[in-house]
């Protein structure tokens, strides 16, 4: 009834863009932070940060990795560690201010799927690169569904690389007591799909939240199925 292989016992959900609409908040905060940096660095040649920049270089990655990847895409490789950190910290301040002011809504289809998964006895964990995982889950009212959370704070404390490396998902599976082939990964970022494939997980569900624009890339990255919303799986 969940549209998953019968062997699945654990679900590892990414958070932003999979369960909650916070991916939009992240993208907007990144745009403000990067545009401020780019316009100050080169006012005459300023080219704004775009949605495609977010999808290609930042989405799903750890904060510091996303900063480096985007700047490298613009041939900006001479920024020191303090400046890199300042961009990421500025973005996070913008994000948390918006979260505190406006809150966040879970996707209705994701809530329906979580309810069905819980009823079916599927064990649920969240694996996110964000260091704001607990705050987002609480703000969206989803903490009650989640048995385990692996977030950016946890992976940083353990010295693990971020997505597209599989380490965060592998940690989630290990802490849930299953091997990767018994777990399914739900992701909306190409880097997350790549991480799940690299970890040899049993099934990879990709959620395309940009109107079909990512579907082909998600399949090429190795997703087993691409949906526009999680509740589509309930009738699969």
TrEMBL record:
Gene Ontology molecular function, alphabetical: beta-phosphoglucomutase activity; metal ion binding
Gene3D superfamilies with a match to the protein in the record: HAD superfamily/HAD-like, Putative phosphatase, domain 2
Keywords carried by this UniProt record: Carbohydrate metabolism, Isomerase, Magnesium, Metal-binding, Phosphoprotein
Top class in the EC scheme: isomerase
Keyword Disulfide bond set for record: no
Superkingdom of origin: Bacteria
Cofactor dependency: Mg(2+)
Chemical reaction(s) catalysed: beta-D-glucose 1-phosphate = beta-D-glucose 6-phosphate
Pfam family, one: Hydrolase
EC numbers on record: 5.4.2.6
Positions in coiled-coil regions: none
Entry's family note: Belongs to the HAD-like hydrolase superfamily. CbbY/CbbZ/Gph/YieH family.
Protein name as annotated: Beta-phosphoglucomutase
């Amino acid at each position: 009834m969940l549209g998953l292989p019968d062997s699945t016992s654990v679900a590892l959900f990414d958070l932003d863009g999979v369960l909650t609409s916070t991916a939009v908040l992240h993208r907007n905060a990144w745009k403000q932070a990067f545009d401020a940096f780019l316009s100050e660095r080169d006012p005459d040649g300023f080219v704004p940060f775009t949605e495609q920049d977010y999808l290609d270089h930042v989405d799903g990655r750890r904060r510091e990795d996303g900063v480096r990847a985007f700047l490298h895409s613009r041939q900006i490789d001479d920024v020191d560690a303090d400046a890199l950190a300042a961009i990421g910290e500025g973005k996070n301040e913008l994000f948390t201010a918006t979260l505190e002011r406006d809150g966040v809504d879970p996707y209705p289809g994701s809530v329906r799927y979580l309810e069905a998964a819980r009823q079916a006895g599927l064990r649920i964990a969240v694996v996110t690169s964000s260091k704001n995982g607990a705050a987002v889950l609480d703000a969206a009212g989803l903490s009650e569904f989640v048995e385990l959370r692996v977030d950016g704070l946890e992976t940083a404390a353990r010295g693990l690389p971020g997505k597209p490396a599989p380490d965060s998902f592998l940690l989630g599976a290990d802490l849930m007591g299953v091997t990767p082939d018994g777990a399914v990964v739900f992701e909306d970022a190409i880097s997350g799909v790549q991480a799940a494939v690299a970890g040899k997980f049993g099934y990879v569900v990709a959620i395309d939240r940009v109107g079909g624009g990512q579907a082909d890339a998600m399949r090429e990255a190795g997703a087993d199925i691409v949906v526009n919303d999680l509740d589509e799986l309930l009738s699969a």
